[in-house]
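Design request, tokens follow.
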């Protein structure tokens, strides 16, 4: 039989919809323990904890894998063997990603991380980074959501060109982006020079230079997330609202935005996270005042990697907090999709 997604269910196996319906509510959306769990989750973490000398934790992970494998032992069809091989290869990539991250966290003294968080220069740099990233995100929302809506609703000559331009900040080396911004907004730039001479406004080497750099590298995320969210809303729903007397703008705010707010929130979080992590373009256009990444780079140059390790661990914890928030939003989106 052909499932609702167009796939053909194998003979003798329950349809995917039946499997989903039979799943208990608290397990819905989570795959069963299988060889993929061992290869993609447990194996990488086991190797990491083994390399870090955390043998007790490695033993717990290994025991969990053995117990899970015994509880879920079953023969997999031959057609799944390529997937097992692909999972073994993918497990190496997962290991490559988590090894430096967990090594940094588990080998740094927590007391030094706390002491670093209390350092006045660190707090000031972190507050400046978070606030500048927040302002860049707000500007991205104001400019990116309208563009995302147009790209989702209209077909026009040159649309691929616009979409390619939006994605350019993602692929341009960020030091080059900083230099390009400096020629526009610097002291002698096309925009920066008139602002400096007429209004005494200096964008380079200022807080607003940092915002400009963060805006440049972060705006593609909100445009693409909003466009993808708007594409999932049937235009007929907007037409119904307009037939009942709402203007197009009213239908946008009353129908489309409420239906896509989680996509917009995901885009905003990604934009904010990308802005926080930016260094290359910020260092070129506004080395001062120092963001947290500029401070980390300066300390690394002057004092070496051992001195900067607690600060790097602190920044990693901030990044992980953002990541957890993003995954929570994605989980809400997935839960809504499953209920629909």
């Amino acid at each position: 039989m052909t499932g609702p997604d167009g796939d053909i269910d194998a003979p003798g196996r329950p349809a995917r919809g039946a499997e989903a319906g039979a799943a208990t509510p608290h397990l819905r959306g989570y795959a069963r323990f299988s060889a993929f769990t061992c290869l993609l989750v447990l194996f990488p973490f086991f190797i990491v904890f083994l390399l870090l000398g955390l043998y007790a934790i490695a033993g717990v992970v290994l025991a969990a894998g053995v117990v899970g494998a015994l509880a879920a032992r079953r023969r997999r069809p031959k057609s799944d063997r390529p997937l097992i091989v692909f999972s073994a290869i993918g497990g190496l990539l997962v290991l490559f990603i988590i090894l430096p991250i967990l090594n940094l966290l588990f080998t740094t003294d927590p007391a030094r991380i706390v002491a670093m968080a209390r350092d006045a220069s660190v707090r000031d740099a972190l507050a400046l980074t978070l606030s500048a990233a927040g302002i860049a995100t707000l500007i991205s929302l104001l400019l990116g959501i309208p563009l995302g809506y147009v790209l989702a609703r209209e077909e026009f000559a040159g649309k691929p060109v616009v979409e390619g331009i939006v994605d350019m900040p993602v692929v341009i080396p960020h030091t080059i982006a900083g230099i390009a911004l400096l020629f526009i907004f610097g002291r002698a730039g096309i925009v920066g020079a008139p602002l400096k001479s007429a209004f005494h406004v200096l964008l380079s080497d200022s807080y607003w230079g940092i915002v400009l750099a963060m805006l440049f590298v972060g705006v593609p995320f909100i445009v693409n997330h909003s466009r993808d969210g708007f594409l999932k809303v049937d235009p007929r729903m907007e037409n119904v609202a307009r037939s009942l007397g709402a203007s197009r703008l009213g239908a946008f705010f009353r129908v489309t935005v409420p239906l896509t707010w989680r996509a917009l929130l995901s885009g905003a979080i990604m934009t904010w996270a990308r802005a926080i992590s930016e260094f290359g373009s910020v260092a070129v256009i506004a080395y001062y005042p120092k963001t947290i990444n500029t401070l980390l780079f300066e300390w690394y140059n002057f004092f070496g990697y051992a001195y900067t390790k607690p600060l790097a661990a602190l920044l990693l914890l901030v990044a992980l907090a953002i990541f957890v928030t993003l995954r929570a939003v994605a989980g809400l989106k997935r839960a809504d999709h499953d209920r629909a």
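Comment from the thread starter after seeing the answer: thanks! The two ends are 22 Å apart (CA to CA).
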